[in-house]
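REVIEWER CHECKLIST
Item 1: Sequence provided? yes
Item 2: Single chain? yes
Item 3: Sequence as submitted:
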Amino acid sequence: MKKILLLVVMMTLALQGASAHTVESLVNTFSTEKGVEKIHVGKTMMRLGAFFLNDEVRHVSKIAKGIHSVLVLDLDHCSADAKRRFAAAVGSLNDNAYTTVMETNDGDDHVRILGKPDGADLRDVVIISYDRDDCQLVRLKGKVKGKDVRKLIDD
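Item 4: Structure as written out by the authors:
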């Protein structure tokens, strides 16, 4: 009986992690995980922060003014099982609303950057980074102009 109960619990946990096929479901699934740190910075605080950027980082200020909110999920203090499920969910992520801007795998370190294209610009950029010990998701809502990103890269 104990083996059957354990099997059912393990299957439920596996299905929960595997069910995160969109960015929204990934955020919803793992934002309530025990040990996760969730930080949300809204539009008012973003505007206030952009106001205090000085002329030396003017191009960063232009990018920051286009961002309405930032959501950060930090799974560093979660269980190893939660981190494994997060990595599996990111691997099965298939959100047609987003395109992959960049993806890199360096050993155990994985970084995936997604964005919603809007002409030459991007809306809603999602940065996902994970390895065996650290897992983070950063979601930037707003509009980032392509020319400002190019200038930032060039500088």
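Item 5: Key structural point noted by reviewer: The chain has six helices and six strands.
Item 6: Recommendation: ____
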